[in-house]
Write a structure and sequence with these properties.
This protein has 133 residues and is mostly helical. It contains three helices and no strands.
């Protein structure tokens, strides 16, 4: 029994060309569906490198923006605490001035002292506050 192997060069060539055209079609469809000129690194290696650098720079910009927003939040919180502390200290000053009035009786002075103790505790609580804690 003899074995005969024959090659059909035209068929092999046509199959290879069909495979190449199919790859090109698939690549074109990928580009169209994604809306990007570069879908794979083999499309444009230098362009892909530039794109990756730009994407990294954009991500660093977003991180810097977030850091700035966090700093603004911290400063706004500190401003709120200082505003509250100023109001408390002002009220303590008012209570001191009212307590020196000779027309006040001991019940009035006791009420002033009670309010002073609450305000004092509020100042201590403000002092012990931690941002984002």
């Amino acid at each position: 029994m003899s074995l005969v192997i024959s090659h059909n060069f035209a068929a092999s060539y046509a199959a290879r060309q069909l495979e190449i055209n199919d790859d090109n079609l698939r690549n074109s469809l990928n580009k169209l569906s994604s809306g990007k000129r570069i879908v794979r690194p083999t499309d444009d290696a230098a362009g892909m490198a530039v794109q990756l650098k730009m994407k990294a720079a954009i991500n660093r910009g977003f991180a810097a923006k977030n850091n700035i927003q966090n700093a603004i939040s911290l400063l706004q919180t500190q401003d709120g605490v200082l505003t509250t502390a100023t109001s408390v200290v002002d009220r303590i000053g008012e209570l001191k001035a009212m307590s020196t009035d000779a027309t006040k009786n001991s019940l009035d002075l006791l009420n002033y002292d009670e309010e002073f103790q609450v305000l004092r505790q509020q100042l201590l609580d403000l002092q012990n506050e931690k941002f984002n804690g």
